Amino acid sequence: MTAPTGRRERKKAATRQKIADTALRMFLDRGYDEVGIRDVAAEADVAVTTLFSHFASKEALVFEQEENFAQQLAQAVTDRAPGEPLIPALRRQIHAMVRHCSAERSAPIWGMIDRTPALRQYEESMQSRYSASLAAAIAADLDQPADTTSCGAIARFVIDAFSLARTAADPQAAVDEIFTMIEAAWNAAGTSRRA
């Protein structure tokens, strides 16, 4: 995400961050299902309409960095070094994301997500969006149509690799194991010639 430059943009970003931080603290302290939108707005000292101008839903408060996730995956494709193969670049990015999620400070948040059906469902809907944006980035990189099956399938596998690895007993080993399969599938599809 680009840092806001103007005073108004900085103020909006600060308000958004304050709301997200307040919500997360309250959810972790009291439990996600025990805290309502009005509670978060009151604690953050904003109107409910202000909260909804920054976040579309209660679930979005937990996943306030979701935009960064999709951007980081797309950048793993577009910003890799010339000649660097696609799958190793994506593997490196998923390793970094899994490390972040399994860090001590992130564990309580992911534990809450895993225990809360509404948050798990929201995460699954986000994964569909991530998958579509990653598939588009891969297809564009290969100069192929956005709906190319192999690009869509590999994108979905990469997103699923993150979900599976972050809950594994050894997350980093799980990433490597899954990406061995992803690379084999990518090579079998014959799309690795340019990526």
Automatic annotation (TrEMBL):
GO terms for molecular function: DNA-binding transcription factor activity; transcription cis-regulatory region binding. Keywords: DNA-binding, Transcription, Transcription regulation. Residues 36-55 bind DNA. Residues 13-73 form the HTH tetR-type domain. The keyword tRNA-binding does not apply. PANTHER family: HTH-TYPE TRANSCRIPTIONAL REGULATOR BETI, HTH-TYPE TRANSCRIPTIONAL REGULATOR RUTR. This is TetR family transcriptional regulator.
